Amino acid sequence: MKKILEVTDLCKTYIINKRQNNVLRNVSFSVDEGEMVAVMGPSGSGKSTLLYTVSGMDRMTAGDVEFFGKNISKLKANELAELRLDEMGFIFQQMYMLKNLSVLDNIILPARQSKANTLSSKEKFEYGKELMRKLGIIEIADNDINEVSGGQLQRACICRSMINKPKMIFADEPTGALNRSSSNEVMDELCSINKEGTAIMLVTHDAKVAARCSRVLYIVDGNIKGEYNNTESDTRKRERALNNWLLEMGW
Amino acid sequence: MYLDILKRDLKRKKTMNTILLIFMILSVMFVSSSVNTTMSVMSATDKFLDVSEAKDYFVATIGTKTGEDAQDKLEALDCVSSIKSEHIFYLNENSVKYNGKAAETHSTGILNSVDDVSIKIYDADKNELTEVNEGEIYAKNSFLETNDIPIGAKIEITVGGYTGKFTVKGTFLDVLFGSEMMGTPRFVISPSDFDKIAQKNADNIFESYKGIIMNIETDDLSKVENTVSGFDDVAFTGSREIIKLTYIMDMITAGVFLIISICLIIISLVLLKFTIGFTISEEYREIGVMKAIGIKSGKIRSLYMVKYIAMAIVGAVIGFFCGIPFGNMMVDQSSKNIITGESTGIFVNLLCALIVVLVIAFFCRLSTGKVKKFTPVDAIRSGESGKRYKKKGFIKLAKSPAKPVFFMAVNDILSGFRHYVVMTITFIIGILMITTILSTMSTLQSPKLLAWFSMADCDVTLEDKASSEKYTNPDGQKLRLDDLEEMEKTLAENGIQAECFAESLMKLSIQNGDKKAVSLTFMGSGTTTDQYAYIEGTAPENTDEVAISYVIADKLGVKIGDKVTIKTGGENEEFIVTALLQCMNNMGEGIRLNEKLDMDFSKVLGFFSYQIKFTDNPSASELNDRYEKIKELYPDYEFRTAGEYVDYSIGGIAGSMSDTKNFILMIVMVINILVVVLMEKSFLAKERGEIALMKAIGFKNKSIIAWQTIRVAILMAAAVIIAVLLTDPVSQLAIGGIFKTMGAKYIIFDINILESYVIYPLIVFAVTILAVFVSALGIRSISSQEVNNIE
Fold first, then answer.
1. What is the Rg, in whole angstroms, of the alpha carbon atoms belonging to chain B?
2. Chain A residues interacting with chain B (CB cutoff of 8 angstroms)
3. Whole-angstrom Cα distance, residue B6 to residue B9?
4. CB contact, 8 Å: B395 with chain A?
5. What are the residue ranges spanned by the domains of chain A?
6. Which residues pair with B86 in a beta bridge?
7. Looking at CA atoms only, how far is residue B674 from chain A in angstroms?
8. If you placed Cys at B583, which of B335, B458, B590, B704 could pair as Cys (CB 3.0 to 4.6 Å)?
9. pTM exceeding the 0.80 threshold for the entire prediction
């Protein structure tokens, strides 16, 4: 399998009140094409920082991150913005959207902004609607964002992350604000996207969510303490095996 | 505990609190200085007349003997309680020379001894002028400015048999002849120099150079006016009200400052209301938390009230001190020819500061009123008050061909226009302030105004300083017509097809029954009466017909078709009123006689310049060539285009308004910069999360800066359009009244489209947008990770 994300000796340090806080310490891992990787760990272990740093949303202190062969530590702010717009998709725990735009407008906004996306405005509009239809939320296309439920909004966020057909989606606790039923629906969508070939890296506290990923990285105090490959095909067995492994890790 | 919450709030929300404090300081500063300026300006002319000890009526006579007789007759009236008189010398247009050339005096000048002036006069520092050294002279400011004469220069004065040189010591403020409209320049010299001139002119042949001005105190003005209308050789009469009216042009500048002051007060209050509302809406989430843990609404409200009132007091103290120099600057700028009296004082500033604090407390109480209505959950939802189904977007990106950044800017405005109203109002007021003064200035320089100064339409005027001596004789009209014919011939020989004509000016007594008036009277040379503008009726085509101004018509109670008696020469003649006209000479009083009427021109008071009207519609480039040719042909005459002549007739007020225009432009730009910088900072604080989200999904900094800038640019463009549409009605409302006071029933503002509607709005637009752009650069410090701050 081709490596699409390769992280080597990644360090991230914050200076707070003149005190050095090493959030990530020499983290190394890689993500292969079509892979779905979960990052787990206790609160404050550096999961979200890892996600933001490898996706170019935050600058690293040291180390290298290669995304499709591009060393993102060497990219300028504008180049990073282009990378995020055209080749990456993002899903956040809170269903962040621009409040003055309708749901559909929020979804197609990155497509309209992208120069790499060569579809016409009409085609982008149709593709946005197609994604919404696929995720079962077409009926809320013209709604304002305060008119829809959390689950619907998170699926809209997934549509937005997909609009420019990214090579990889980064998700920070995508089900964290959802109830179990909505959470399952969102994960079904992400798995389906993944099956179509888009790599996904997600941060989660939920073992059930992590169990649906092909690989789980367990991070503690800024270091990857362990790595778990989900090989079981039966869902219950996968969850049980992962829970056992997490217990071993000190979860 | 509350003190702790407040302390932490001040520390944590430094940006918003600083913005609010700055607005509070500005409000106190603008309100106190503006109220001060308004009060000073409103009472300026009355105060000036009072401090100058000007009484109720002034009469200036030609000849000392005539003056003394007139004084005796006036003193004999019961209604006259005192007369203070002064002896003067008249200076004709060639009497004052600078660098060997006759200086521009506009009209007959007056020379006085400093110890004999019947009113109090003041030096440039507004101290009473009581002494002038021998060999020194004080002159009217506009005289020195017109002739580029610096203080310390030497000017030569010729009066009858005397010629002497004087050093210009300074300028002085003179309520009687000091206004821009009062063309007469007064000069003040030492008593010893005045005596020397008197001795040289003791002979009776110099009687016409001498005169007396009387400052009359009376309780029956009409009786005095009636008595004076019977005097011969009266050069000037004017009541206190007429003198006030001569300051109308100065009051245009002052009026503009009045408008600025009112605008600043409106802007301050609107900004305050917005900022308080905005900052309190920022607190909703915390208000919700406090409510949720059981703190009563009253306590929460008092917490914010304490915070805002404390800030208001700090702002009021700082604004109070900043307002004093700012107010003085505004008052000083508002008029250069008027003593605006003592500043209304610190008490007014203090009172204004107190009022602003109370207004802030009121706004704060209004804005915190919602706290009571909200449930904790509503407040946490940022004051949405449970109504979750409120449509925001009216337009859809999906259906719009616009670029996302532009679309978002338009959509933001349409979705929440309330947030941008303050900014738009501020922009509109600012642009209006500039376009109003520009339209006033261009109108004051417009050739179209010639019609309202009792002149026929023309392209060029030529002033012949010797004309008064040449034509003031019984055959003056014939001589003048011959000269005009000669001028037409000379121009034609030089390839300029033109008609030449001129206007003569008399002061005649007009009567309807027992109602009398002494009015300026106009008679054309080389024109026909149909060349002039009338507001009603038809031109007086026959010699026994007359057109009168509506002011005179009102005064005499006559209408078109009525007969009036006019004293032409020594005899009373009857005339039929065929038309009403409006004129801005002598505050609307005017009579037009038919040009064929046989008039004794020795009674003529003065002559307007020669007027030249091209008859072949030359192109703009050809016009310039013709101007040069005419200057070449008549080097001794003062050349002016029609527009320049209008400006000159009004006393060059448009030129002096130029400083005011620049001052206003500066104020508008400073206000716009302050408003957009502070508001942009407010927006950045509120939209931090959204900006982070845009960054996270791949928007570049430049796109986000463009979004923020375009939003303000759209508002600014809308403001420019609205201001342009409002310029004419606002000018009519604010400045039209001043023209009405001068005698014009209506005035069409002659607006220079390019300057008023394009160049100046563009300057303000560019500066404002630059300020937004620089402020929006602040988005660079927002990280995409701050997406978690989104509400």
1. 33
2. 52, 57-58, 77-78, 81-86, 88, 90, 92, 94, 96-102, 104-105, 108-110, 112-114, 121, 125, 128, 142, 144, 146-147, 160
3. 5
4. no
5. 3-96+168-249
6. B213
7. 27
8. B590
9. no
